[in-house]
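User: Predict Undecaprenyl-diphosphatase's structure from this.
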Amino acid sequence: MSSSAGTQQQSVADALAQRVEARRGAESVWVERLRELGAVDRAVYEVVADTPTPELDSPVRRLSNAANYSRLWLGLAAVIAVFGGRRGRRAALEGVLAIGVTSATVNLGMKPLAQRRRPDRAGHDLYAARRVSMPESDSFPSGHAASAFAFAYAVGRHLPGLAVPIRLLAGGVAYSRVHTGVHYPGDVIIGSIVGAGTAATVAAGCDRIYRLQDANRERV
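Assistant:
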């Protein structure tokens, strides 16, 4: 394990490696694999932190802040609901519902279990131009990334013409959390997967409701 991997910078992979080692012993191949994943996670964070990007810093910082409390997605949901017709209203409603379920899953379920501390931005001078407020919640997984991909999944399945651009926007929000130093890459990758997966579960439930609504409408 890297010498820089103190308690504050321990990844979920590192924590899993410790549990596997306790159960299966240090000779388990999974122990080293998990530790290597943790090392890669921290190394990518350091590369982003130390790469000068003066033209990107301001727009990426603004994008990250725009997604605080899902304001970006709630604003888009309102626009889609107004101008998107019936499909747009369904997409907007499902998108907001997906954000709510995802946020509860991440903030009430996963973060308390993982308890990964936020990155330490000290010693990285470039963060002066990128700085956003450091959230007080735990780092893993990223709630911003989870909400972004949950909303993108919901909207994309109802409005295919928006699927690519809204997923690109979601990817930009996810990356912005690493660029501004408030998350490790692993946090946003897992957050994105959790968001899309949760949205798919919400979509399955919504589809049942839509079928009932359509059936009742046909009877009228």
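The chain has two domains: 1-51, 54-219.
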